[in-house]
Amino acid sequence: MAVLLTFILLLLLLLLVPSFIQSSSIQDPELVVQQVQKSINDSRRNLAFLSCGSGNPIDDCWRCDKNWETNRKSLADCAIGFGKHAIGGRDGKIYVVTDPGDHPVKPKPGTLRYGVIQEEPLWIIFKRDMVIKLKQELMMNSFKTIDGRGTNVHIAGGPCITIQFVTNIIIHGINVHDCKRGGNTYVRDSPTHYGFRTLSDGDGISIFGGSHIWVDHCSLSNCRDGLIDVIHGSTAITISNNFMTHHNKVMLLGHSDSFTRDKNMQVTIAFNHFGEGLVQRMPRCRHGYFHVVNNDYTHWRMYAIGGSANPTINSQGNRFLASNDNTFKEVTKRENAGQSQWKNWNWRSSGDLMLNGAFFRASGAGSSSSYARASSLAAKPSSVVASITAAAGTLNCKKGSRC
Q1: What is the DSSP string of 265-329?
Q2: Full-model pTM
């Protein structure tokens, strides 16, 4: 009898299963994709909350790794924005700078200049803390990374870094300050070539006709001309997590109003701290497309963001703290054009936090398609800018611990 009952139950179960399967609805595949993506994002948020995550997507990519020193090249996978494809010297050997000396034409092995002029990709690190006073501009070759993590490296007191007509450069963790003019002499830019250089401007980092460039976690101040200049057809550039102080003309993006090749320029300015003693150009833009996202502006004297020659400026999720001087409350400044012209320039503020009377004068089409070319990453809420930029500038990275 028990065997018969068991058989009947199994028979009923087999009869019911097909109807159950057929009555179940087939899910929308797009909905499934969204649910999977949500699960991934929730997991990432939980991981960040439970570990060392800061909410800064660049830092969260590599700073939690206690073995960062042996995994240095993983940094090349952490860029965001328009310069996210800059790989620097990822595919090359490690080159160690052991000598802070410099010779513009005959650099010795072990010096920084000897490393940056080589033809092959190199990931350049430093054996110890050092101050490098360059005698002339440091002319970089393509596919190079200058990685100062774990040491306290200053390039200061002489001409500084020039990235001219080269590609795939990463500069990370370097102090650049008190840069001077150089030139009217010969400077080597490869193992097989040196040429005559006219007077330089005295920029901290000069990017001239360069592409796929990433400048991250540097501290810059007090140079003769700009802290960072991006000009003459440069594009695909990210400037992130830097700490800038004590300077007048901070950052120029665009060669001149008449240089129309800069219409293709795309630059991301993200997670930087624009701090004490800054006056103007954070940045000053010409012609191209500029995504200014999640930066902390705690000081300016003339203006924070300016431009000329009809640039598209997409300002998102920044924190602007104006000074107590009522003369300097406006974030923006238009150059070389009357209102009848600049009213059509596409300058947009979205989700920015305006403090102490700061205000952004928007213009152009609020939903213009040109903003798509000036969008390089998703902005985080401006309320978290202070925390995600708290580690801007060079970091105090120690071996065997999180950076």
Answers
A1: -EEEEES-EE-TTEEE-SSEEESSEEEEES-EE---SS-SEEEESS-EEEEES-EEE--S-GGG-
A2: 0.88
